[in-house]
Amino acid sequence: MIQVKRNKFYNKLNTYRKAVQLFSLAFLVAVPILVVNGIYSIIGTLYSITIFGVDIVDPAMALQTTILTKKLIETLIIGIIIPVLLAVIFGKVFCSWMCPFNTLSEYWQSIAKKIFPKRAKKVKLQALEVNPKPILYWGILVLLFILTVLLDFPIITFLSAPGIISAEISHYIMGMGLGLEIFVVLAIILIEGFLFKRYWCKYVCPVGGVLSLFRTPFTLRINHNEGSCSCAANAEPCSKSCPLDLSPKRDNLYPYCYNCGLCIKTCEKTGFSALSFGFGKKEIKKFESQKVLINKD
Q: Checking phi first, is residue 259 left (phi over 0); if not, alpha (psi -120 to 50) or beta?
């Protein structure tokens, strides 16, 4: 008989994630407030921010600047070190744990479900037989940068939802009002609520797309232990809990998945701990018996 212990960290994973999301939003509000009061230890937005003298630059912005200027700028290279290392180790967790757009979109989805229950049923997530092919994801990202070159225009700047949100928060608090860019973000969120559930984060966002470029075979990933999985193919709680409508049990999970961990939490609650985080794909032996003793310690 196999004994499976419930993982307390996984059970509370979404609570931790929500706490980080709210802290990140509070941080974006605090930065311009500090500047208004003459404190310049932290300045900038999610396009580019300086924290106690350390520059952090969005890799998507750095790549766009490099393409448009046709120059390698040392400041940008140094500025992307921290976000690139984060992406290499943990994947694009910025998107699911810190991005203000993702946070607002998640809350909007919850609200829209209550306000428009009939519409929510129509776009209800279903377990997928296959995940989308990566070529779709990469094709959209490449197309955006091709248009940037052809038009000689910083398209990525106006499609960076986290950058726009952080900049608009800063401008408003500093008395500069709101720009038209904020309506781009509002339009995306509204469309997601009525037409295409979470399509922006899943397919289009250039910020997440560039972060996905830094995945390695050893980057944090979701592993699936087939031997301990008790769910039928057409009844997958983990898939239905995924905000991006992905199946963690199937191929091509990445580059789409942003490691929010909701599927793992669901598996811990309703299944036999078949899903887990790990660095690299692990070879896991199948259970010799399907009898599993649940230990909640």
A: left
Question: What is the C-alpha separation between 89 and 211, in angstroms, rounded?
Answer: 11
* Residue 279 domain boundaries: 2-295
Phi-psi region of 152 (alpha: psi -120 to 50; beta: other; left: phi over 0): left
Give the C-alpha separation, 156 to 288, whole Å. Answer: 51
Using alpha carbons, list the distances in angstroms from residue 62 to 138, 167, 209: 18, 17, 13
Q: Identify the residue whose tokens are 């009898």.
A: 291
DSSP state of 97: I
Picking from 131, 156, 133, 134, the residue whose alpha carbon sits closest to that of residue 143 is 156
What confidence tens digit (pLDDT) does each residue in 147-193 have?
A: 999 999 999 999 999 999 999 999 999 988 888 888 889 888 888 76
pTM of the model: 0.86
> Number of folded domains in the chain?
1
State pLDDT tens for residues 250-264.
889 999 999 999 999
Please report the pLDDT score of residue 290 as a whole number.
Answer: 41
